[in-house]
Hints:
Blueprint: H1 10-19, H2 26-36, E1 41-44, H3 51-64, E2 83-86, H4 90-103, E3 111-114, H5 121-129, E4 133-136, H6 138-147, E5 157-160, H7 163-168, H8 172-180, E6 187-192, H9 197-206, E7 211-214, E8 225-231, H10 237-247, E9 253-256, H11 260-272, E10 277-280, H12 286-297, E11 303-306, E12 321-324, H13 331-338, E13 348-354, H14 359-369
Parallel strand pairs: 1-6, 1-7, 2-4, 2-5, 3-4, 5-6, 8-13, 9-11, 9-12, 10-11, 12-13
Helix pairs in contact: 2-3, 3-4, 6-8, 13-14
Amino acid sequence: MSFSSLGLSDALVRAVAETGYTSPTPIQQQAIPAVLNGGDLLAGAQTGTGKTAGFTLPLLHRLSTDATGIKLTSNKSARAVRALILTPTRELAAQVEESVRVYGKYTNLNSAVIFGGVGINPQIKQLKHGVDILVATPGRLLDHMDQGTVDLSKIEILVLDEADRMLDMGFIRDIRKVLAGLPPKRQNLLFSATFSDEIKALADGLLDKPATIEVARRNSTVEIIAQKIHPVDRDKKHPMLAHLIKSNNWHQVLVFTRTKHGANKLVEQLEKDGIGAMAIHGNKSQSARTKALSEFKDNKLQVLVATDIAARGIDIDQLPHVVNYDLPNVPEDYVHRIGRTGRAGATGEAVSLVCVDEHEMLKDIEKLIKQTLPRDVIPGFEPDPTARPQPIQLRSGGPGHRNGGGGRNGGAPRKPGNGNGNGGGNKPRSASGNGGGNGGAPRGNGGGAPRTGNANAPRSSAQHRSGGRGR
């Protein structure tokens, strides 16, 4: 099957051909005709399946042709936003908007991306000039809506990308505020890696008689990814990682740590070993995150160390190696992590360094993916059979909790409560308050959230999934 056989315009088929893709992936084969038909869509697809092109290509086709298929030619005059794509993180927003530009290069449509952590005035100027397709994170979009600097009254198509992650990060209230500002008559597309009860509830309230697509089994891992476990003592993880990278001559290695502090510490250790590494997480400035990601994509950086949320939006063809330096405390995050390799039909390898503290986490992961992962003990790094497990220091929020809700990009709670803000906030929202993020003043008294950043706080009675805005 070819892209032209799906009903896409010559301009889009030409742009796709120039990227080197010749045949659509399963999600693209199903999603593109469904979106072209004009109805709502509920699509379940794991990361790495080609879902971004699955909605950007038909979206571009619908906006670049009128009802009779005649190409629109007006590309100078200011115009209201016609399509809105909401994503959970800045990196993913930038990646999606880049795809819109690449695939839409031979149309007369233009696009913009808006997210927090950067100045708002250039975004205001761009929006004032006129944008057809807007990619945004929820918090910064609401800032523009509050200031009256974005016109959403002419939205024809709404896309919620990685909706499950947006709910995990506490954006449900923000999403509902955005929906309230949109025209009722529009096409709605919802993409999610999993169909939880909350996703189903969101879909029921948003979608009208949607077509439903689900590729790959729910919570399944990509079969072409070779997965293995290296048992190791907790204090030997860093030497083992350095050994694996050097002895196997690995390049372009994406390494996941559980905490921001752990990511920074690992980068320092790898640098001492002569291995080039950089970290991306919520305490890093947007410019630092962008620089690290760019160098990694261009193969100028050997190792990129990331926390789970910061890694959303990393979309690299033929990324060969993903390493779980720490196992995630949420089993579904394992699927998201290893899905960064083996993309678009390429093969990949996912390696997990597992110490005695993580055996229960490993059991939960294997139960989720319904397979027992092979163990491979590396000579010289044999784990101590008498070692006893110790409590694991989870993300900033404390044991047993999922990704934080309320703050911008998954921060701490806005109200007084239990959260520990650890974000990279830019500026204070108020002069008072104790606690909150590094690099940003707190919002309220006790555990306030930074305005921007990636703090991960526990869900508690003071913080629910529907907690405050995220950027």
